[in-house]
Inverse folding.
């Protein structure tokens, strides 16, 4: 992607309203050349093989499978990436077979699409892998039910699986040579974000560190060791993440004392991140402990440097919560069958998909499967705002169809079409990292060119695609958005209350002697804050009438982060010799937070807080009172 184009897209995103530029991910990954080249390779290579065999369309199904599987690759440990991409490919194969069997069966096909929609919605509750797999199941069911793809269904399924395998191979090609590369890169990213906190402690820097730390835990804990016992390298990386968290809290504690970190420590942390990325030992930090916070910061820095140099992991450096398969399946099962949001999403998706499929049976649109596909992609709730995606997809498709029309007019049918196919495929990763509109801008001409290889529809395909996509967006807005008042307001309030409760539980045990319990509760509190920020960012992409109300939560979110930081910083000082707070004062403040959470859930104004006479908790007490006042002001306003 040329730098000029990237800068122009960035300026457009900054100038446009939030609902027009909603990002596909809350924090976009940096653009790299390899994902773009890999996407172009996995899509065009099957077509080249088909062309060499004398039948270009034979490579169409593997190319579609490779594209969907490659789009499911969102980084992380190799094992996690294989599971996510493999699940997506298998679900796509099942969808292809299902759609092929019901193609041409009229209203029975409509009922099957609705049933698959329900199954897709339930599968989507199974985390990141379930989300993309459920979507691919639905997408391929719709495609194969609407398009007569070449070959019998059994042969087509084998071709589809071949495309899935082809997409996975280049994604994990360096696994045998660098098995820990993703985990090491994730840990190095945490220390880079930590270095920024030394110079700048604003909200953006704190959010960047929190996001990097959570991604680091997800990546390291998601990698399964092939060793028979404990994996020393994985253990070391987890300990390094824990040390980064300790450094961050010691830094906050130091600023609570009115001090700044010693000059040069930011550079030492940056050098440590470079050493972690390169796999070499960093320099020993030069620091001296004076106050409790300075002593804690120095100790945490030296502990991190020792771990980065390959030192032995101490028992107190490794508190984390192993969640086994049984626990994961239990969580997924509860979300699938007992989650209110899951039931609502399932009903909305089935209603809209049924309406779109029924419209196709009336023959109002020439290629109505595009209408159904649009519904499946736009209404998915874990991808962000339904309203924003509907608008963005319509605008992106408009631009993309214009570009596709020009390409189909200028490029003759045949192998020459593979050149623009490769270009648009390479641009897909960039569009994914920006927003849904830009993704649709690149995806629309790519899909049109692939369909043209099969049907030879010519430039008229672009107009058909645009009309069908707009119809799908209208169905989503009329049936999946407007009739559901719950979709007009993002669930910021409930998530805020959950974060307050998690912070209260952390405060209640932050000064207990058990190191592991403290660390686990601290991580849960900061994970809840990260979830809250994600929900807030998505809510800001709703229409202005909704997003203006959501902005009132920003001061309360900032106040809650200050409570968590004050708790962590005070705990650090107590561990380094500062006076220990009384159990009564701790219980009083934790109960106050629980009361604020209960009042938010009930829609009440939080009650006044009683006195907390304990100097050791002065910073925490002040932060809790500020939180109460901020929430009370927002609720009364």
């Amino acid at each position: 992607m040329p730098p000029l184009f990237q800068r122009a897209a960035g300026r457009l995103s900054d100038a446009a309203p939030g609902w027009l530029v909603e990002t596909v991910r809350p924090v976009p990954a940096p653009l790299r050349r390899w994902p773009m080249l890999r996407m172009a390779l996995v899509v065009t290579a099957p077509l080249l093989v088909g062309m060499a065999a004398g039948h270009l369309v034979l490579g169409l199904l593997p190319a579609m499978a490779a594209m969907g599987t490659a789009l499911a690759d969102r980084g992380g440990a190799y094992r996690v990436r294989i599971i996510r991409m493999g699940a997506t490919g298998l679900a796509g194969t099942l969808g292809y077979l299902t759609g092929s069997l019901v193609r041409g069966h009229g209203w029975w096909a409509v009922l099957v699409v609705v049933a698959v929609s329900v199954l897709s919605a339930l599968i989507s509750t199974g985390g990141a892998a379930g989300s993309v797999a459920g979507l691919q199941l639905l997408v391929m069911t719709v495609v194969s039910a609407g398009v007569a793809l070449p070959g019998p269904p059994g042969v087509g399924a084998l071709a589809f699986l071949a495309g899935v395998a082809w997409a996975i191979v280049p994604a994990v090609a360096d696994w045998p040579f660098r098995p820990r590369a993703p985990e090491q890169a994730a840990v190095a990213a945490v220390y880079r974000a930590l270095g920024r906190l030394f110079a700048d402690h604003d909200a953006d820097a704190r959010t960047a560190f929190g996001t990097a730390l959570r991604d680091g835990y997800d990546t390291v804990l998601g990698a399964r060791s092939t060793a028979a016992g404990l994996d020393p390298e994985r253990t070391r990386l987890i300990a390094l993440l824990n040390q980064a968290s300790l450094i961050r809290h010691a830094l906050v504690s130091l600023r609570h004392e009115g001090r700044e970190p010693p000059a040069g420590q930011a550079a030492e942390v940056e050098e440590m991140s470079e050493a972690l990325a390169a796999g070499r030992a960093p320099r020993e930090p030069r620091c001296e402990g004076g106050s409790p916070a300075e002593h804690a910061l120095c100790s945490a820095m030296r502990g991190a440097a020792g771990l980065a140099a390959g030192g032995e992991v101490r028992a107190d450096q490794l508190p984390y919560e192993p969640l086994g398969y049984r626990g994961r399946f239990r969580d997924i099962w509860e979300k699938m069958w007992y989650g209110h949001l899951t039931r609502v999403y399932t009903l909305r998706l089935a209603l809209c998909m049924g309406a779109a499929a029924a419209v196709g049976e009336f023959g109002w649109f020439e290629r109505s499967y595009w209408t159904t596909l649009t519904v499946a992609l736009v209404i998915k709730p874990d991808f962000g705002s339904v309203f924003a995606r509907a608008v963005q997809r319509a605008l992106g498709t408009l631009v993309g169809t214009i570009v596709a029309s020009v390409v189909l007019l200028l490029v003759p049918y045949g192998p020459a079409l593979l050149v623009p196919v490769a270009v648009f495929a390479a641009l897909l990763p960039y569009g994914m990292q920006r927003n849904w509109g830009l993704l649709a801008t690149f995806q629309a001409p790519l899909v049109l060119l692939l369909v043209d290889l099969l049907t030879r529809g010519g430039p008229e395909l672009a107009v058909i695609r645009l009309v069908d996509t707009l119809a799908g967006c209208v169905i989503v807005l009329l049936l999946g958005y407007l009739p559901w008042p719950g979709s007009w307001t993002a669930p910021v309030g409930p998530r805020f209350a959950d974060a307050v409760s998690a912070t209260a539980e952390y405060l209640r045990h932050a000064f207990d002697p058990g190191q592991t319990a403290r660390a686990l509760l601290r991580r849960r509190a900061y994970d809840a804050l990260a979830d809250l920020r994600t929900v807030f960012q998505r809510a800001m992409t709703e229409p202005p009438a909704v997003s203006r109300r959501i902005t009132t939560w920003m001061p309360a979110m900032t106040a809650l982060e200050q409570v968590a930081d004050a708790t962590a910083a005070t705990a650090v000082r107590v561990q380094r010799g500062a006076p220990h707070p009384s159990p009564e004062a701790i219980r009083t403040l934790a109960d106050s937070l629980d009361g604020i959470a209960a009042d938010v859930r009930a829609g009440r104004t939080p009650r006044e807080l009683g006195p907390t006479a304990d100097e050791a908790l002065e910073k925490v007490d002040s932060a809790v009172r500020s939180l109460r006042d901020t929430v009370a002001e927002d609720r009364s306003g």
